Amino acid sequence: MRRWALILIFLSSPAWAAKVPADWDGDPPSTPAPVPVRVSESAKVLALAGRWGIGFDSIPGASTGTGLVPGLAAPNALAVRYWVSERLSWDGLLAVNLNSQPSGGSGSTGVPAGTDQKAFGVGTVLKFNLKRPTPWLLAQTLARASLASLQQVSNSGTGGGQTTSTFGLGVGLGFEAFMPFWEDLSFEGSVLMNFSSSQTKLENSTQAAQSGSSLAIDASGFTPLNVGLHLYF
């Protein structure tokens, strides 16, 4: 009896009460729920793996005329992009361009009067992200290959048509910048070392009237900069 009295005195002492929470009901104290981590808006821009994009790019030899901006390799092809991983993407390119100038007119830049032009091209591009200086900017290296055909015929019945085929390979450096106000839209540019081989055949002829190859840092314009625009979804 004396022993039970000592136990009751100990449990009712201030030292024991200080060790037990006021709301203790005999169960272990519950663990606080984890605080969810908030993902910043800028981090979403870099989530590239598995995303598709559609935009504009350029294929050498697939343009009719000289473009809207002299000296700049204006986009002439539709591009479909898929990001295989956070660092690697693949592009498929397709170009179909038509231009017709009636005979007796003044013509346009790069297309003489009385001429119909039809251009077709396909290509592929691989891009690898070297670095991300900011959440909105990617520094890249890229490699590309393309094949294009440009047919030029007279629409005045005088004949003299010709077809130019162009094969191109290129490697170089570029960038892709996402728009802060619309993170699904990007603008890009690149400078390439291009190898180009072309052949021109006259109408109703099986042999090349003119052929040539070149290796240079250039683009479709007078400046070496290729530009493109992509929308991701």
Keywords:
eight-stranded antiparallel β-barrel, elongated, mainly beta, single chain, 3 helices
Protein model, in words:
There is one protein chain. The chain starts with a helix and ends with a strand. It has a single domain (46-232), classed as Porin. Strands 1-2-3-4-5-6-7-9 form an eight-stranded antiparallel β-barrel. By secondary structure, the protein is mainly beta. The protein contains three helices and nine strands, in the order H-H-H-E-E-E-E-E-E-E-E-E. Helix content is 9%, strand content 52%.
Summarize, please.
Strands 1-2-3-4-5-6-7-9 form an eight-stranded antiparallel barrel.
Order of helices and strands: HHHEEEEEEEEE
How far apart the termini lie comes to 80 Å
Shape: elongated
Q: Enter the CATH topology name.
A: Porin
Topology, element by element:
Elements: H1 2-11, H2 14-19, H3 41-45, E1 52-57, E2 77-83, E3 88-101, E4 115-134, E5 137-154, E6 162-179, E7 182-202, E8 208-217, E9 225-232
Antiparallel strand pairs: 1-2, 1-9, 2-3, 3-4, 4-5, 5-6, 6-7, 7-8, 7-9
